[in-house]
Structures are given as structure tokens and as C-alpha cells.
Specification:
With about 70 residues, the protein is mainly α. It has three helices and three strands; from the N terminus they run αβααββ.
């Protein structure tokens, strides 16, 4: 998860861009091992959580940080 946070930095990236930067090939593994845990622990958030076709994410600022579910 730390690698994912470093890759995203202060920018919004699509899932494809995150996977490319991490040099990962399998989308399902990326979602289950990296993206979903990072979202659940509030390290990152989806830019458009209500849009199922858009999968961009960013790191929330400290004031926006969500409490873990």
C-alpha cells in the first residue's frame, strides 16, 4: 500500500496509470491487494465514488482524511 501512496503522490491517477507506475499487469489483483485496502484504510479516495465507470483516485489531505470503516 505504501508503494501505491508514493505512486499517486499529489495527483489524481486512473487505475491504469497507477498499475503502469507500479508495473502491475492484473487489474483484479491490483484492485484487491492495493486499491481496495488503501481506500478502506482512508489512505486514498476515489475522485468519483458514485460513478462505476470512472476509477481515478487521489490522496486526501489531512483535513479530508476519512476515518477507517
Amino acid at each position: 500500500m505504501k508503494r501505491l501512496v508514493i505512486v499517486i503522490g499529489n495527483q489524481a491517477l486512473s487505475v491504469k496509470n497507477m498499475m503502469d507506475n507500479l508495473e502491475l499487469k492484473r487489474r483484479d489483483s491490483f484492485l484487491n491487494l492495493y486499491l481496495k485496502p488503501a481506500i478502506n484504510e482512508a489512505y486514498i479516495r476515489l475522485l468519483y465514488p458514485k460513478s462505476p465507470k470512472t476509477s481515478s483516485a487521489e490522496i486526501p489531505t489531512d483535513s479530508e482524511r476519512l476515518s477507517p470503516i
